[in-house]
Design brief:
- With 376 residues, the protein is of the alpha+beta class.
- Among the domains are: 2-83 and 101-176, NADH Oxidase, CATH 3.40.109; 274-376, no CATH class.
- It is 43% helix and 9% strand.
- The chain has a four-stranded antiparallel beta sheet with strand order 1-2-7-4, sandwiched between helices. Strands 3-8 form a two-stranded parallel ribbon.
- The longest helix is centred in the first third of the chain and has 20 residues, at 108-127.
- The protein is elongated.
Length: 376
């Protein structure tokens, strides 16, 4: 029986590599773990911010078997997306928008799910067992499962780290009724290093291995729907979608290689788009530029809010006329408010004049607060 089972697992892993996955490991899905308790504490502290879905699905997230009672094993997959340059170097290019490396192309959900379904079909044919496929779109705690399977360990920045892939890899999961032999879990290799904690622009880590999403630029630029809190705006710099700082600084990245598959999903025009070009996008143009990209789900107004904050941080006063002033009349108060802040940062005299002309007629309380925020 053992030889047959090991043969099945070996064939599964080879099939995963043949499909382009960087690694494939296995863990039990039906044994106790502490991840559910840690998630419950995270939510009870309110650190999930506006992500109400996390609280709503908390019970289902606590364990894989809470989602699917018949699951016995989890097949965990990694896909390398290592960048061809250090994204930290691009933070100095203040007139350009910095999009997180993972989002500079097609939606990774689509790329990985297609492969997962192919692998799942192959596994069903080999094993005769039932399967369910997941790519970050269901209440499944993929990072703890991947650590349990030995793909890596959850670093002090709470993301997964691999000795072979550094911090640059996507995760996918297949739950199955098959009784597979698990791989050995990876141990923590962070040691005394705290580079990821120290580099965080907004101090989003209250302690090692803990994240307060409400302070995280990735959360603020992607998940948060309201105005960016004033205390974090300057720290955002030119980050308009996500933040790679804690990933990029990880010393284990020195063992990671550039993804050989960037050509399949990366798009050159999304590597460092000009802020002025992004600020000019109406809804139709936004949908066209970000078609097939995870950025599209954020929506034009939320992205424009981020772009205007980046413009305010750019120091480029010549952007006021063409990229800021038109948005003082935007229909969305989130956009108007960000434009007010950007104007105050770049041209205080013009800000004073526009405030005198516009503030009294403003109907939204949050935009009114933006006009009153900066005395000039």
């Amino acid at each position: 029986m053992a030889d047959t089972r090991n043969s099945l697992e070996a064939r599964l892993k080879q099939a995963a590599l043949d499909l382009g996955f960087s690694d494939c490991r296995i863990c039990r899905a039906d044994t106790p773990w502490q991840a559910g308790q840690r998630l419950e504490h995270f939510v009870s502290e309110g650190r999930h911010g506006d992500m109400d879905w996390m609280e709503a699905t908390l019970e289902r997230r606590k364990a894989p078997t809470a989602m699917w009672g018949d699951a016995k094993s989890a097949i965990m997959l990694a896909v390398n997306y290592g960048p061809d340059s250090d994204p930290l170097e691009q933070l100095a290019l203040r007139s350009h928008g910095n999009i997180s490396v993972y989002a500079r192309g097609g939606d990774y959900h689509d790329l990985i799910k297609k492969r997962l379904k192919q692998l799942a079909r192959s596994f069903v044919e080999l094993s005769g067992e039932e399967v369910k496929v997941f790519v970050d779109t269901a209440p499944l705690m993929e990072k703890p499962l991947a650590a349990k399977a030995g793909l890596g360990w959850q670093g002090k920045h709470t993301n997964l780290v691999s000795r072979e892939l550094g911090s640059w890899f996507f995760l996918g999961a297949i739950l199955t009724t098959a009784d597979l032999a698990p791989d050995e879990a990876e141990s923590d290799h962070c040691g005394s290093c705290r580079a990821c904690l120290d580099i965080c622009p907004t101090k989003a880590f209250p302690a090692p291995y803990q994240l307060d999403a409400r302070r995280c630029i990735s959360y603020l630029t992607i998940e948060h729907s309201g105005p960016i809190p004033v205390e974090f705006r300057e720290a955002m710099g030119n980050r308009i979608y996500g933040c790679d700082d804690c990933l990029a600084v990880c010393p284990w990245n020195k063992f990671a290689s550039r993804s050989s598959e960037q050509k399949l999903w990366a798009r050159a025009e999304l590597k460092l788009p000009e802020l002025a070009d992004l600020a000019a996008l109406d809804d139709a143009a936004f949908r066209d530029v970000f078609s097939g990209s995870p950025v599209k789900r954020t929506g034009r107004n939320r992205m424009l809010r981020n772009v205007l904050i980046a413009i305010g941080n750019s120091g480029e006063a010549d952007l006021v006329e063409r990229s800021v002033l038109p948005h003082l009349e935007d229909e969305d108060p989130i956009v108007r408010g960000a434009a007010v802040w950007a104007l105050a940062c770049l041209d205080k005299a013009r800000f004073a004049a526009e405030r005198d002309a516009r503030a009294a007629d403003e109907t939204d309380d949050e935009v009114k607060a933006e006009w009153a925020l900066m005395p000039v």
